[in-house]
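chain below, 470 aa
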Amino acid sequence: MEFKARKVLIDPTKPYENDCLSRSGDVENLSFLLRNMTSPIVMSVNAPWGHGKTTFLEMLHADLKLNNCKSVFFSAWETDFANDPLLAFLGEINQEINSLITGDEEKSHAWNSAKKAGVHILKKGIPALVKLGTAGIIDAEKILEDEAVKLSESLSKDLIDEYSKNKGAIFEFKENLRKVLTSESGEPENLYIFVDELDRCRPTYAIELLERIKHLLDIDGLVFVLAMDKEQLSHSVKAIYGNEFESKGYLKRFIDIEYALPDSELDEFIDKLYQAFGFYQFFEKRKKYRAFQYDYDHLKNVFKLIAKAKRYSLREIEQLIARINLVIHSTNENTYIYPALLTFLITAKDSNPELYRDFINPSSTPEKAIEYLYSIVPEQQRLESFECMLIEGFLLAAKSDHYSANLGDSLDRHKRNLENDECEEKLRNYSDRVIHIAQRPVENGNSVALESLISRIELSDKFKFGGEES
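prediction:
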């Protein structure tokens, strides 16, 4: 059994082969736009964490390369161990630049000069180098005191000299990088630089990278595409400059144009995850039992209903399906899974744990859980949704009979709808199906073994998945 979903792999020669979010059209349009933009420019692709920015950028990067563009992709989060983002930038583009300028001595010389200037920019002055090779013999405090006196005498001159050197190094860095990016016609050739997961970096690194891009890398030919969660990154800015700082206005100084990532088409994405986790094979084996014929469809369709209603991110969908996977694979082949109830409880436990705890309390009624269902699915959609009928019917069935709890007014309300001739037909039909499911939830009229289902859900809660808070 698969424990977690595998990362979507983008084939550089067929970038849309695994596009399960129907984003190929958006990528192609954006790729065409980028190829016609003048540089320098910084574009952000904005969406909350877990909404598929990485896959989107990887497809865009591949599309540009297929259109004979020069493009580099790197993860800021994987490079934030570096003391200075400029070092990470030079290291990541070095191989790509070398491959572009092979055989061109003038550009090779310019690139080496740019790297040397970059190294100078990276250097930081150290007031004193004190080597304590024999601890206890050298008076460290006296040495530091002497160095401090010397430092105070030469500080002004050193600072001015250092400023002049840095200014010259920055000029040299930019000029040589311009030469590297200049085509034979004398015009700059765009180099597209994709920076992923900026919002996952430590705050100081993320802000320093933006500042480096703005002040050092605003060079004709450089086009930056940054993946970011603007809200999260604004919190990083405030972590450095204070809660009262106008962080979003500050970020606008670095971003020339923002692109909002389109909403995802979830159906195909969920289908792919069910396939990746082997759900079809699991449920196919159970079809020899007549009572389990429709479990696979019920599990998938109820999850799609809730995922869309709750507007889950792709990452949240992966984690919740992984949790459902643990529950069903801890269930015997001939044991009821109650797919609609299982899905509702796992998703409620994640987003509304207080509601979940109330429902599994033996003395509670199902009314709060039903109200929660009504709150996330609009009435007109709910009245036509068989999945909502399944959920509500099983919520009622789970709290009756052997689970020693009363149903409150929940079931009687549906009975009154059937008795009321003035009740609209959709509502009457909905109530009729809910009553039928509640009174006969499983084959042979058996009741729902809620305690057993809860024990497996609680077992899955002992596991943590990547990206979840600990």
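The chain has two domains: 24-127+139-260, 266-460. Residues 295 and 339 are 6 Å apart (CA to CA).
thats it, cya
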